[in-house]
Amino acid sequence: MDARFEPPADADTTVAAARDPTRRRLLLALFGLGFFASLATMPFVASLRESLPGGDALPSFGLGRALLFAAIETLLFTLPLAALGLAMLPKTGLPGAPLLRAVFAREPAAPRPILDAMVQGAAIGLGVALLLGGLDAVAPALKPIVEFESPEWWRGLLASFGAGIREEIWFRWGILTAITRALVAIKGSESAAPWMFWTANVTAGLLFGAIHIPQAYSFVEVTPAAAAMVVGGNAIAGLGFGWIYRRKGLEAAMAAHTATDIVLHVILPAVAP
């Protein structure tokens, strides 16, 4: 099975892509996955909101609000970035979404890359936890400003799947792919050189780390050291997800990200004293 997207032979790639039913199905699949991924994070978000000072006075986060928020987030972020990644994928040398493409093409798809990625993702989660825990033990940087308990395990589990799906669509499928393709265009190349991928991977990783600062700001005192830990820890994980995306595709990156978050948001809170 050829897992990679190739640029259409037609000179007008936009028209050719629009006529490719597999690409249209893939875009719809990413849209649907993104919506349900956003919805899956809502119980975790609701629990964190309740932990904030005055959280009990905030409006109830019921099913209606959750559906509305998931729809808005999917339309504003997931759909545009999914379309961007799909349009920019040719000439990047990236594998795209081989398992989804195989399903739509009715071709056999091996589960081994997903299983391998989950093991790698669990290792990434454990490594990041040990690194940040060690740094914080030597020079404490994360100073809580509110007391809160970790959400129940099932909320963390749902959020792990949600973040693993939608954030990989945003940062690896969308941003990393687009930056790689932009560098290919700037250099006038026919394919992406390794430095182009790594430039895109580092950039996407830093952006991935940066989006976690607002959440941290709600619970810890955000100093330069704390911001560096939040951005750095997530960026390191993002680099790993990008590497897996390059080698095995979007679905493997999603599996790795999910496994990382399960370690951080389900397993560690359960065993931590």
* Poorly predicted tracts of residues: 1-17
Distance between the termini: 48 Å
Rg over CA atoms, rounded to whole Å, is 19 Å
Describe the sheet with the most strands: 2 strands, antiparallel
Overall strand count: 2
Structural class: mainly alpha
Mean pLDDT reading? 86
Series of H and E elements: HHHHHEHHHEHH
Strand percentage: under 5%
Read across the widest sheet, the strand sequence of neighbours is: 1-2
What are the SSEs and their pairings?
Blueprint: H1 13-18, H2 21-51, H3 63-88, H4 98-104, H5 112-138, E1 143-144, H6 153-187, H7 194-210, H8 213-217, E2 220-221, H9 224-248, H10 250-271
Antiparallel strand pairs: 1-2
Helix pairs in contact: 2-3, 2-6, 3-6, 5-9, 5-10, 6-7, 6-9, 6-10, 7-9, 9-10
Summarize the structure.
By secondary structure, this protein is mostly helical. The chain has helices spanning 13-18, 21-51, 63-88, 98-104, 112-138, 153-187, 194-210, 213-217, 224-248, 250-271, and strands at 143-144, 220-221.
Task: Describe what this molecule looks like in 3D.
It is a single chain. This protein is mostly helical and 273 residues long. The protein has one domain. It contains ten helices and two strands. It has a two-stranded antiparallel sheet.
Protein traits:
273 residues; mainly alpha; two-stranded antiparallel ribbon; 10 helices
